[in-house]
Design brief:
Layout lengths: L18 E4 H6 L8 E10 L2 E11 L7 E10 L2 E14 L7 E5 L6 E2 L1 E4 L9 H4 L14 H11 L18 H33 L1
Antiparallel strand pairs: 1-8, 2-3, 3-4, 4-5, 5-6, 6-7
Helix pairs in contact: 3-4
Length: about 210
């Protein structure tokens, strides 16, 4: 895994500036399907300008062998590399039922919902593997992502805490619930980043 800092100045890159693969979004939009093999391309925009694209195969038809196969071209020092990257998939069974699918970070072995490729990076990996900065580091202490996450969970009449997926409250419109759910996933990732940052600081002091 190459370093991100080669030829780069101005501090750590952020998750917001990186290409991102979101497995939950791929499943919701039919770009990946449990029990099937799907393929296509993923592309990103920066403003209204193309920012990057990759080809992929989502292989989810064989239990125990589920994976994403990524194909893309990267440039380094004037040379172009054809990259073939395999990302293993797994799932958990939340207390609310069903399955939640995860990608396994190729470098940390962690289950994650999103993988990132920062500027000058060479492979997709987790935010922790790339040590990506996150917008939450600039959020005021009194309005941290975890507190906003807990407020949303209370609003949806669910249990508070990371991983406590909120059910749709009785009487709430499905479209309203789906909008809250999108916000929930954003806040859960940001709250997870808060936790990782705090643990990294503690470990740094211990060392």
């Amino acid at each position: 895994m190459g370093g991100w800092s080669s030829g780069r100045h101005g501090g750590r890159p952020t998750a917001d500036a990186s290409l991102r693969i979101d497995l939950a979004w791929m499943l919701r939009t039919g770009r990946a399907k449990e029990g099937a093999v799907t393929w296509g391309s993923l592309s990103w925009l920066r403003g209204d300008q193309p920012y990057g694209s990759i080809s992929y195969r989502a292989i989810m038809d064989t239990p125990g062998e589920e994976r994403l196969e990524l194909s893309y071209t990267r440039s380094s020092g004037g040379e172009r590399e054809q990259v073939k990257q395999i990302v293993q998939l797994s799932f958990s069974r939340p207390h609310y039922g069903g399955k939640r699918w995860w990608m396994i970070c190729p470098y940390r072995g962690l289950r994650v919902g999103k993988l990132y490729l920062p500027p000058n990076g060479d492979r997709f990996a987790s935010r922790l593997a790339w040590r990506l900065g996150y917008h939450i580091q600039r959020v005021a202490k009194h309005d941290r992502a975890s507190e906003r996450l807990f407020r949303l969970q209370r609003k949806l009449k669910g249990d508070q805490g990371l991983g406590n997926f909120p059910r749709r409250p009785k009487g709430m419109w499905r479209r309203t619930y789906e909008r809250h759910l999108e916000r929930y996933w954003e806040l859960e990732e940001a709250a997870d980043a808060e936790l990782a940052i705090g643990l990294a600081r503690i470990m740094g002091r211990i060392r």
